[in-house]
Amino acid sequence: MPKRNKRSDQDGIYERSDSPCYWASFTDANGKRVRRSTGVRKSQEGRKEAEALLAKWRLEAYRARHWEEVPPKSFDELMLEYLRARRDKRSHRDDLTRARQLRRYFTGAVMNTLRPAEINRYMTERRAEGVAPATVNRELALLSAAINLANRDWEWGLPNPVAGRKLREPEGRIRWITRSEAAALVQAARGIARSPYLADFIVTALHTGCRSGELLGLEWRRVDLSAGLIHLEAHHTKAAKRRSVPLNQTARRAILSRARYRARHCPGTPWVFCRKNGERLEWLQRSFKLACARAGIEDFRIHDLRHTCAAWLVSAGVPLPEVRDLLGHASITMTERYAHLAPDNVRAAVSRLDGDESRYSHAGEGASAGELREVM
């Protein structure tokens, strides 16, 4: 259990060794000791801001205790507190972008009296602006998360009119290419001299199903060629879960090609996919787009390499749970998007229903193909 500063049992601002922010200790309206992070990082100016926040919380507690006043909470206050408390989230940058969109509509709104009608109007207006349903849902999910955190950790007692309101999202995009198209793409990538890493990147992505960020951030210390594995720690993956990705012979050859490149040009670099000077690759969209154009492949993105890996696996009859584990999907629901690529599996399942057909005696049973055409 984290150690508290000796002053944490008294009213005031204090520091904790396990937190970069100032913490506040005060008595709430029910006479209960509250200890919570101010979300303000430790500094000379930060100390003053933390003191101001503590004074505000004390005043609210006093009013609630003596005047039975429920202090109004504004949208700006809610979102600022939430973003401070969750600044270490992997998606913090995305949260900031979504919060700006929400603020355009809800700034000045009193969260204590927020109603479902206002949420519905937000959804209508954002859709009228041409925003995709998935984007609107993620913006409102942020608002809902902020309300839930405020109620759970800070006892604000706010209504959550977002709950149960969600726009229907279209089925996710699935774009994949055939093996012959993939061969053409790799060949085109080999012809782009300024991007000597592109072909190996494409091959590795196609044969591991790794996300672009997982490969671009891959370090040699997490590559085990003897075991034929790539190790991804939780902070490397979208689902924030550790997983090991096996290398087949094709992917292994691509990684070995990168090892030879490293030995020739930048033996000290920690990155598998890097520039000639050893610097980590941040993106390769331009060269990838050029390779697609040269290969005659349209409407194909880097992330579609991952879709292609999944499509090839499912088409080969690999069970969906195994595909899920390889790709690191958070749930089987994501993997089920590829189920339609294995109709033979379903056909085999239905064929198990066939039994002793003699128990069904229908006229016309066993009709020839010609007779069937006449009936149809």
Distance between the termini: 75 Å
Give the count of structural domains: 2
Largest sheet: 3 strands, antiparallel
Q: How many beta strands in the DSSP annotation?
A: 6
Q: How do the SSEs run, as a string of H and E?
A: EEEHHHHHHHHEEEHHHHHHH
Polypeptide structure, described:
This protein is mainly α and 376 residues long. The chain has 2 domains: 6-115, no CATH class; 179-344, hpI Integrase, Chain A, CATH 1.10.443.10. 48% of the residues lie in helices and 8% in strands. It is built from 15 helices and 6 strands. The chain has helices spanning 44-67, 75-85, 92-106, 116-128, 133-153, 179-190, 198-208, 212-216, 249-265, 285-295, 304-315, 320-327, 332-335, 343-351, 369-375; strands at 12-15, 21-27, 33-41, 223-224, 229-232, 243-246. The strands form 2 sheets. A 3-stranded antiparallel beta sheet has the order 1-2-3. A 3-stranded antiparallel beta sheet has the order 4-5-6. Strand 4 and strand 5 form a beta hairpin. The radius of gyration is 29 Å and the shape is elongated. The protein starts with 11 loop residues before the first strand and ends with a helix.
